[in-house]
Amino acid sequence: MERYGIPGCKLIAEIKDSVKEAILEGIIENSHDAALKFADKLALSKRAEIESLGGNLRGATATDATHQS
Predict the structure, then answer these.
(1) What is the mean pLDDT of residues 35-53?
(2) Per-residue pLDDT, 61
(3) Rounded distance between C-alpha atoms, residue 32 and residue 17, angstroms
(4) Is 21 helix (H, G, I), strand (E, B) or coil?
(5) What is the mean pLDDT of residues 38-50?
(6) Could you state, in order of their start, the residue ranges of all structural domains in the chain?
(7) pLDDT tens-place string over residues 1-23
(8) Are 50 and 6 in contact (CB under 8 A)?
(9) 42-49: which pairs have CB atoms within 8 A and are 24 or more residues apart?
């Protein structure tokens, strides 16, 4: 949650489930780097969705997730 600056365990669980599904369906390779890049893209999408609905993301910027290692 801290990495992506998005609230709640539910959103993190959705991202993790999407990563698992992408690996199983062959959309991404089964590697840490590929999974992390995919999760970063999903998190940015979720952040944009929350922000467009007027949600507060505790001051984190939309690019925070891509600048952390």
Answers:
(1) 85
(2) 44
(3) 15
(4) helix
(5) 84
(6) 1-54
(7) 566 666 667 888 888 999 999 99
(8) yes
(9) 42/14, 42/15, 42/18, 43/3, 43/4, 43/6, 43/15, 44/4, 46/4, 46/6, 46/11, 46/14, 46/15, 47/4, 47/5, 47/6
